[in-house]
Amino acid sequence: MASERRSETRAAHYAETTPDGEAPWADLEMTVPTDRDHASVVALVECALVELTHEAVGAVFVSRQVGRSSRTQYVAGDDVGEQFQKRRFDDRLGWHETTVPRRTVRDELITQLTRSPSTPAERSGERAASEADTFVVKPVRELRTP
Fold first, then answer.
1. Which end of the chain is more exposed for a tag (fewer CB within 10 A), N or C?
2. Which whole-number Å values give the CA distances from 123 to 35, 41, 118, 128, in the listed order?
């Protein structure tokens, strides 16, 4: 795809021009639950959406529960950042892909990143037996696809 190649070229050029050589989106990650306040989470999501629109990167939210995990990926579907591909993989159901508007991606990410352990098993410490949920922005080439 031409737009994906343009984004990859822009990302490579921008990463080369940053003073420390690190891409601007490289620190957009966190574990959930987090101690960040709501405004900080919203700012992180907004930054991620901007990077998804302008660079060849995708946002990935991985939810882990005892014996099960799911992975949701968001990748810009157009050059203006109004449509995104949402790819969801569930251990039991496999891959599902759909197109969603920016507002939906924003709302979903904020909801996922601001939630706290709420089930009785999570409160009793069973959650500690599994890995924490994670959110990260990474190059599209590193995303797992169906």
1. N
2. 16, 22, 7, 9
**What are the strands of the beta sheet with 133-139, ordered from one edge?**
29-32, 133-139, 57-65, 68-76, 83-90, 94-101
What are the per-10-residue average pLDDT scores of the chain (146 residues)? 40 48 73 89 93 91 85 91 92 90 96 72 50 90 76
Write out the two tokens for 89. Answer: 């993989």
Q: Can you give the pTM of this predicted structure?
A: 0.74
Q: Would you state the torsion angle of the CA atoms of residues 116, 36, 138, 77, taken in this order, to the nearest 10 degrees?
A: 80
Q: Which of 125, 128, 134 is nearest to 44 (CA)?
A: 134
pLDDT of residue 40: 93
